[in-house]
Specification:
Elements (H helix, E strand, L loop, with lengths): L1 H7 L1 H14 L7 H4 L3 H12 L6 H15 L6 H15 L1 H4 L4 H26 L7 H30 L4
Helix pairs in contact: 2-4, 2-5, 4-6, 4-8, 4-9, 5-6, 6-8, 8-9
Organism: marine metagenome
Keywords: Cell membrane, Cell shape, Membrane, Transmembrane, Transmembrane helix
Subcellular location: Cell membrane
């Protein structure tokens, strides 16, 4: 019973794990501004392959948690992005479901780029002082570089869940 409940919540738990990893305080100058947005990549992946295990309310609260931990000035931004990505990819999942690894990485990279552009526009309109776009570019590059390995881990995890008829 507990094991079944745990396995049913693996998509939400992976997103939570990545939110917490992103928010960890590392002793690297500027890390908080350029930390890879891996939680978005996990939301993209699970929205395509197990949308029923990734409820909207869970994504909303995880997005709020990420906003609170990383940048409380734009509270609700990541929550909104998570919900938009989930809705878009669930509606279009028939195009992504049987694609290969490279196509999946390129698709998720494109979706992530669109989310970063939305994020930049919203921050631009909400900023009361001039800001640099460089941290956003670095964050996207770091996310893009780490995304294939994250997708590979999530594919393995989904395979593990599928073998146990849990997804």
């Amino acid at each position: 019973m507990v094991k079944q409940l745990f396995f049913r919540n693996v998509p939400l738990l992976t997103v939570l794990f990545l939110v917490l990893i992103i928010a960890m305080p590392f002793q690297i100058t500027g890390y908080s501004m350029t930390a890879p947005f891996l939680s978005l990549a996990a939301v993209c992946y699970w929205s395509i392959f197990s949308p029923t295990l990734l409820p909207f309310y869970g994504l909303f609260f995880l997005g709020l948690l990420q906003d609170i931990l990383s940048n409380p000035d734009t509270l609700g931004l990541n929550a909104g992005l998570f919900l938009l990505v989930r809705l878009f990819l669930e509606l279009e999942k028939r195009f992504f479901i049987n694609q290969g690894f490279i196509v999946l990485c390129l698709t998720l990279g494109t979706v992530t780029l669109i989310c970063f552009l939305i994020k930049i526009l919203i921050v631009f309109f909400l900023a009361d002082a001039p800001f640099s776009i460089n941290p956003f570019i670095l964050q996207y590059i770091f996310t893009l570089l780490l995304m294939p390995s994250l997708i590979w881990v999530l594919m393995y995890l989904r395979s593990f869940l599928t073998k146990r008829n849990l997804s």
